[in-house]
Amino acid sequence: MDTALVIGGTRFIGRHLVDDLLAHGYDVTIFNRGNHDDPFADDDRASHVEGDRTNDSSLEAAAETVDPDAVFDCVAYYPKDVQAATRIFADCEAYVYISSGAAYGREEIPKREGETPLEPCTPEQAIDDSNETYGARKAEGDRAVFAAAERGVNAMSVRPCIVYGPHDYTERLDFWIDRVNRFDRIVVPGDGTNIWHRAYVEDVASAMRLVAERGEAGEAYNVGDRRLVTLEEMVDLIAAQLDTDAEVVTAGPRELAAGDIAVDDYVLYREYPHVLSTAKLAALGWESTPLEEAMARSVAAHLESDRTGREHGPDREAEERVLGILDTF
């Protein structure tokens, strides 16, 4: 494969995907609405086609103009998006859809492709735009990929868990980096051992390319760091990259109540462990970036940006009340 069309491609996962494709010699075209700054505007290796991916005519025009070997769908949030794309790009050598670990419908450790059932999706959920239906919509997108493969389309899916790294507009990891950078004592909800599987963004990008090149039609591939760490260990990783000491102070619901805080007010906290098996992807030859290296790049990007993530968690004044209560025990 030589040519790639990236639907999306200027913000987070798509941006890193374009970088990865260019680094591997692909002729890349980005298709989006042009609502965000294009980091590749001055890069002669990348072309740009403006259009709305929810408009089938725009997608059809892009398919005819670009005639890509591979299509990477970074912004398909509704099942109908996947259904339309797999029809329009049916003749491509590969169509890769970004699904999500949230598509899984049962809590088990680890969640495995083809074994752990997916979320059901009602017709009402399929067109809803709330966070509550995100996993169901992604699961229905997966089923659209499987149906397309049965029609002979070389369509595949990747399912990342929580994605982090440079240019992350969700600022979930930024909240924790900001905390460690500013304070010596870091409040961690629960007992610090909770695990919410995370995936470094560059690894998600390389996984998408590898799935396009080596994956099998109708298959889904989980993506996540090969080495998992607890929330407390993540704080320690951040502190090491900032060359600082951070005392982790764990607090359960009872202690957090002193600051009118709930455990799930914290980003990247999840009571039940969320773990994805990545063995299937690794069998294609994929490897993840060592955690220390991934965190070093993430911390450096945070320090160079104006992101703080502070609005995604409790304010420090509330945490100080919690720390005050804990210090009296």
Largest sheet: 7 strands, parallel
Helical proportion? 25-40%
Which stretches of 5+ consecutive residues score pLDDT under 50?
A: none
> Biggest sheet: strands side by side, in what order?
3-2-1-4-5-6-10
Strand coverage percent: 15-25%
Task: Output the radius of gyration.
Answer: 21 Å
CATH topology of the largest domain: Rossmann fold
CATH architecture of the largest domain: 3-Layer(aba) Sandwich
The number of domains = 2
CATH superfamily of the largest domain: NAD(P)-binding Rossmann-like Domain
Q: If you average the pLDDT, what whole number results? A: 96
Q: In whole angstroms, how far apart are the ends?
A: 63 Å
> SSE order in H/E notation?
EHEEHEHEHHEEHEEHEHEHHHH
Number of strands: 11
Report the CATH C-level class of the largest domain: Alpha Beta
Helical/strand content category: alpha/beta
Shape: globular
Tally of separate helices: 12
Biased composition (Basic and acidic residues): 37-55
Protein name: NAD-dependent epimerase/dehydratase family protein
Family: Belongs to the NAD(P)-dependent epimerase/dehydratase family.
Domain NAD-dependent epimerase/dehydratase: 4-224
